Amino acid sequence: MNDLKSTRLKDFDYSSSGVYFITICTNDMKCCLSVVGDGALDVPQIKLSEYGRIIENEILKMNGIYDNLNVDYYVIMPNHVHLLLVVSNAHTKGTSRAPSPTNSVVARYVSTLKRMTNQKCGVDIWQRSYYDHIIRNEEDYLYHIQYIEENPRKWIIGKDEYYA
Q: Where are the alpha helices (DSSP H) in the chain?
């Protein structure tokens, strides 16, 4: 039985242009993507593992492949990744109804990123689902950039919600 409750916004067109805050977690919240530690001038430093470097390379590669998708900002934490995914001009001509969230540009991007990184890592590293938040305005966008920037510091002090 599948007890996963959808976090998708009902009746929202997930293929429409916009910015999406995405969080993808590793299986069993295993800390295999990076190590976060204190750096110079009390600025947290993230050291990517081999898996983390593969993920970063795939994010950058996918930015160059898709005309209508771009990761504006991201952070690779020990057991999760946060992305600000910008979707532009994604609406398919001739469609009258909003596609389901599982068949959207956002879902296809996340699925492709997971599949490509799993193949290159040689192991399934991701949880089945992911979290998304539709960025509603500039204030919301700036809040999520700050959230991504502060995430490593929160990790160091054990205040990150995914801290393991």
A: 50-65, 105-121, 138-156
Q: What is the pTM of this model?
A: 0.83
What is the CB neighbour count within 10 angstroms for residue 122? 9
Q: Which amino acid is at 61?
A: K
Non-local (6+) Cβ contacts of 142 within 8 A are: none
* 62: CATH: 3.30.70.1290
Tell me the per-residue pLDDT of 44-62, one tens digit each, with 9 for 90 and over. Answer: 899 999 999 999 999 999 9
Distance in angstroms (rounded) separating the CA atoms of residues 78 and 49: 9
Number of domains in the chain: 1
Of residues 23, 51, 18, 16, the one with CA closest to residue 110: 23
Can you give the residue range of the structural domain that contains 129? 18-152
Phi then psi dihedrals of residue 163, to 5 deg: -60, 130
List the Cα angle 148/150/156 in 5-degree steps.
120
